[in-house]
Structures are given as structure tokens and as C-alpha cells.
């Protein structure tokens, strides 16, 4: 079964993404999916099954797993315990190549990141030791989160208390060219969501005709390219609203929409409320 491509949208002014879930606010399931970002998942407790590439791995009492990008996998968490908790950290290859690689002091961390292509599952002793670090993400500001994340990577890079799910780094037979093209399509949207996005231009850039690109994108993601762009833009709109009490019109243009009624329909489709009501719920007043 071909995995569904999952776009990872970072908050503005951040280098990586952190999300926390519990039994009441569980992660929306993505099913069998793939994304280019590296991922560290901390599951506090409960039993479950990791399904990664061609392998499965049964865990008890939670799990701490680190896997590289472009490895198909299912969701890791479980809802067995009322106090279940899952913390997910995701970061891009640019974070590794453009930031961590600049510092020779991070050699051990970079080696760990390369090792994640084999999928690293850490022992319970390390998982228990790092619980407070993962839990701290919920209360830290962006600067504190980055320092905390580097501390976690430092500790993991010094540990040999782990096993790898794969003996080699050749994890999948999924077509690399298809994954690369999908990554390029996502990067194009990420860099141009605030502009007029041309399907003809991105198709030409990736070596497709317009119709063949649309078929390719639908085959890989189970959705149309326009649907993907609209949801991405709505996600950006939510980020802009959350940063400050901006007007609907300002956020509409910043996130790439040009028509007020169309923006309202798409926002309600993906968020369940209109932009004005979202602002009212968040800030207690309407903004126009």
C-alpha cells in the first residue's frame, strides 16, 4: 500500500515542530504515511505496535523512537492508559544541514541523526531519564524549546542503550524519484503559499504536464493539489491569528487568499469555525 504524504507545518519563527497529545487530545491519525522530516516520538506508557517500513515492533510501557525522513510508518501512540501521553518532535533536513552541521561540536549528534535512518528504539532507562525534558516542551518558550531539544539530542547521542529496527539503511523500495517530486511540490507551496500558485509552473518545474502532475499528486496524497494548498494556507492563517490579534483581512492576504468569502469557506471547512468566530473565541472580540 502506498503511504499518504503528510505535510508537516511548523509555526512561524521556529526551527522544528513539537506537539503533545494525551488521551483527551489525541493526535489526528494519518494512517500509513510518509514525510521528509526526521521524527522523535516519546510515548509515556501503554502497549502498542510500531509499524515502520517493512517491520513491526511490539512495545510495552511506552517507547522512545527516532526515525529519519521518508520512511513510511503508521501512528505510534496508544490510548490504553487514561494518563497516556505522546510528545512528537519533527525537524527538517535543512535544520540538520544548515544549522547543526555548522558546529563541529555536534559531530556526535549528527552521527546519531544519520543512524536514525535505521530507526533507533531506545531502552526504557533512557526513556525514563528523559521524561522531564520531553514534558518541559509544554511550558517552554521557543528559545527554551530549542535549548531543551539540543539537550535531548546531546543525551541520546551519548547513549548506546538502544537497538535499531533495520540492520542497513536501505529501508524501502518506494520510488525515490516520486518521493523527491512530492517533497519538491511541498517545498514549492511552503515557499510560495502567500503568492499566486501556478499549477502549470510547478508542473513544468517537476517535469510534468499539468494533467499528469494533478494525477501524480492525487495518487500520492489521496487528495487534490488545490485541497492541499487551501489547507496549508488555512494552517498558516491560524498561525498568524495565534501570533497576534490581526484583522481577518490582513491574515487573509498574508496566507495567500484574495477573496474574503472563499477564505471564510475554506477556513470553516478545515477549522470548523469562520475566521471572525475563531478570533472571537481566542481573543474575546471580533476583528474585521
From TrEMBL:
Keywords: DNA-binding, Transcription, Transcription regulation. The keyword Coiled coil does not apply. Pfam families: Cupin_2, HTH_18. GO terms for molecular function: DNA-binding transcription factor activity; sequence-specific DNA binding. Residues 183-281 form the HTH araC/xylS-type domain. Gene3D superfamilies: Homeodomain-like, Jelly Rolls. This is AraC-type DNA-binding protein.
Amino acid at each position: 500500500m502506498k503511504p499518504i504524504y503528510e505535510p508537516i507545518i511548523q509555526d512561524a519563527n521556529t526551527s522544528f515542530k513539537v506537539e503533545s497529545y494525551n488521551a483527551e487530545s489525541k493526535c489526528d491519525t494519518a494512517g500509513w504515511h510518509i514525510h521528509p522530516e526526521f521524527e522523535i516520538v516519546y510515548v509515556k506508557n501503554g502497549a502498542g505496535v510500531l509499524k515502520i517500513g517493512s517491520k513491526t515492533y511490539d512495545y510495552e510501557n511506552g517507547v522512545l523512537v527516532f526515525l529519519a525522513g521518508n520512511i513510511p510508518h503508521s501512528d505510534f501512540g496508544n490510548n490504553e492508559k487514561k494518563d497516556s501521553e505522546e510528545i512528537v518532535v519533527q525537524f527538517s533536513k535543512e535544520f540538520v544541514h544548515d544549522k547543526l552541521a555548522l558546529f563541529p561540536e555536534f559531530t556526535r549528534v549528527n552521527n546519531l541523526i544519520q543512524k536514525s535512518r535505521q530507526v533507533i528504539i531506545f531502552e526504557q532507562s533512557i526513556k525514563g531519564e528523559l521524561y522531564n525534558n520531553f514534558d518541559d516542551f509544554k511550558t517552554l518558550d521557543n528559545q527554551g524549546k530549542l535549548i531543551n531539544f539540543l539537550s535531548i539530542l546531546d543525551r541520546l547521542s551519548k547513549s548506546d542503550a538502544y537497538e535499531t529496527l533495520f540492520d542497513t539503511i536501505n529501508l524501502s523500495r518506494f520510488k525515490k524519484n516520486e518521493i523527491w517530486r512530492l517533497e519538491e511540490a511541498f517545498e514549492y507551496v511552503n515557499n510560495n503559499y502567500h503568492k499566486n500558485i501556478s499549477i502549470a509552473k510547478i508542473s513544468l518545474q517537476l517535469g510534468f504536464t499539468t494533467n499528469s502532475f494533478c494525477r501524480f499528486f492525487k495518487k500520492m496524497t489521496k487528495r487534490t493539489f488545490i485541497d492541499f494548498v487551501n489547507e496549508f494556507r488555512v494552517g498558516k492563517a491560524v498561525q498568524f491569528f495565534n501570533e497576534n490579534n490581526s484583522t481577518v483581512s490582513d491574515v487573509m492576504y498574508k496566507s495567500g487568499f484574495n477573496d474574503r468569502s472563499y477564505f471564510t469557506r475554506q477556513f470553516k471547512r478545515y477549522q470548523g469555525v469562520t475566521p471572525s468566530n475563531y478570533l472571537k473565541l481566542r481573543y474575546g472580540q471580533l476583528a474585521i
